[in-house]
Amino acid sequence: MHLDAPLKGGEVALVGAGPGDASLLTLAAAKLIGDCDVIVFDALVSSSVMAMADPKAEKIPAGKRGGRPSAKQSDICETLIKLAQKGKRVVRLKGGDPFVFGRGGEEIRTLSEAGVLFRVIPGITSGIAAPAMAGIPVTDRLVNGSLAFLTGHEATENSRMEWKALVKAFPVLVFYMGAKNLSKIAACLLAAGLDSDTPVAVIYSATMADESYSEGSLDEAERGVLEAKSPSIVIVGDIVADRIPWRER
User: Fold this and answer.
1) Residues known to be catalytic
2) Average pLDDT for runs of 10 along the chain of length 249
3) 3-state DSSP helix/strand/coil percent for the chain, to nearest 5?
4) Cα separations (Å) of 29 from 5, 32, 210?
5) Residue 16 near residue 29, CB atoms below 8 Å
6) In the chain, what are the domains?
């Protein structure tokens, strides 16, 4: 099966919409978005991506944003199943990549259990795209041989992370959904042994017209001097100091 083949009636495509700019969609994503009956889309899917949809396609918002009223995951899965059972050609459109903190695994498990035909179209995840667009290489053979992708929601008392082991193993840390808990994340990293002057970059709304970049130290992030707003990607590590602002040049 070709990934960009037309959807069959009753089939669901779990599609990654990338970081925002429509030009960063995969060819398969662009084709399926423009040729389906229904699009069930997340809040982080940009208007430029949605503009590629067939005007006759039904568009169902299913955004999940922290701290705001949002659809329950169980309801989203149930919607996908019902649409497929009606014979609709469905695109489930998710920002970034569905399988990187996007609950894609939950959705394909539910579809599989319900006997619904589906396919997965990966997208460029923001944890890669945002640093790249800012000129920060998340890997550099002279600096690091590993990196970690993390969720900012783990900076709590019930965290599943071993923070000391984390900072020892990974010289570069990329946090998704890190804006709300930036101060707590910094506090956890400082307590785990990272130097207070460790560079931190905050990239807001990467690849979009309102994109912004800010940079500071781990100490400044902990004290609230370096702030972040959602949606932002947070990069921690000496690699931030090697930034080459290629777009500004």
Assistant:
1) 42, 64, 177
2) 94 97 97 98 95 96 67 92 98 97 95 98 97 94 89 83 94 95 95 97 96 97 95 96 89
3) 30, 20, 50
4) 11, 5, 24
5) yes
6) 11-124 (3.40.1010.10), 127-242 (3.30.950.10)
